[in-house]
Amino acid sequence: MSAPDSAATTPVAKAAPATAPRTDDGDDRRWRDAIARVTSGGWTVALGAVVLAVLAGSVMIAATDPDVQDTSKYFFSRPGDMLQAIGSAVGGAYTALFRGAIYNYNADTFEQAIRPLTQSLTYSTPLILAGLGVAIGFRSGMFNIGGQGQMLVSAAAAGWVGFGLDLPAGLHLLVALIAGVVAGALWAGIAGLLKATTGAHEVIVTIMLNYIAFYLISYMLATPGLLQAPGSANPKTPPMEATAILPRLFGKQFPVHLGFVLALVAVGVVWWLLNRSSVGFRFRIIGENPYAGRVAGVNVPRTIVVSMLVGGALIGVAGATQVLGLSTTGFGSSIDAGVGFDAITVALLGSSQPVGVLFASLLFGAFKAGGTTMQASEGIPIEIVLVVQSLIVLFIAAPPLVRAIFRLPQPKRRVSARRATPPAATPAAPTADGAAR
């Protein structure tokens, strides 16, 4: 009898586990990848742009300060004097900015101390609404820079209803807001319609519409019987009726009004519109590639018009809140207060995302509220705040520069499915006898 087969008697080695235990190197690699994804996002570029702009503003504050200029004359003999003067100038300026925008710790009462924050929220309200309107245009591939004209016509429409009609409380305010929304939407819709039907560039059209709106409103303000207050020679409207004024949220001692709540609601609505609705999906499709959208069955001309109508409606709410919330005693041709153009900066800084637009608007509202305190208490020119805002736009437009300065990782490009497929996943080619190699 033959000896038993050795393979039958030899114990079979246990198979190795299918998954190897995690190592510390794998955990570190996972954390490094997560940090790289976070720091390569668009919000880091926006934050870096703000930091660089503030630093540049600090240089300008120090360069224009008289004490710094005096101590610079003997810098090499006593450099500490100049460094101390620089710290005092820059620290005093941004401390005054904080007191004027967030909390005035030198105030006698809590109401006076917290009033700067409510002032910042008030300034932020039209920026949030107008920034959302511009952001919708950006997401749909439309560069809407006609915020000034859209705000002017919406303010005129809402103001005319506010002082010209006699309606019950509640209904009067609602009708005035609707008038502003409709006016802003129709004025923006002109640019969208021309773009969709004739291919006219929206930048040129909206610029021309800004001029038309400005001179049209100026004419109406200087003409009795239109917008000019009766018996007045000034280009100003009558005061708004009490039934058409947006109520204050925290009493008459604080300027923040119901428009801020409308702005917060608009942020949620626009987020849902862009990320959860079919209309927003079509906006994003034509914003990425209108030709691909046309192939996918999207009516590109109609979507362009709708996106401009929605964006103009949001800017119309901003114009209406300016009239019904702030300039309740009457307004002139400067009612837009530069919000139409600041909305472009806000949309860029917020990466055209609703939440990003919200925080960017709060930042710019704080700049506007605190800039006056910087000028009054520290003698800092208000133009420096405007320069800081402009530098934010400059750095936002140059993401590679911001990434290079802060050593941020570059965003990873998407790899197509064909290129991402490993070579081993492709089927083997058959040989002449039909067997796979």
From TrEMBL:
Report if keyword DNA-binding is assigned: no
Claim: Zinc is one of the keywords in the record: no
Q: Name one Pfam family in it.
A: BPD_transp_2
Name of the protein in its database record: Inner-membrane translocator
Molecular-function GO term, any one: transmembrane transporter activity
> Which InterPro entries does UniProt cross-reference here?
ABC_transp_permease
Where does it localize? Cell membrane
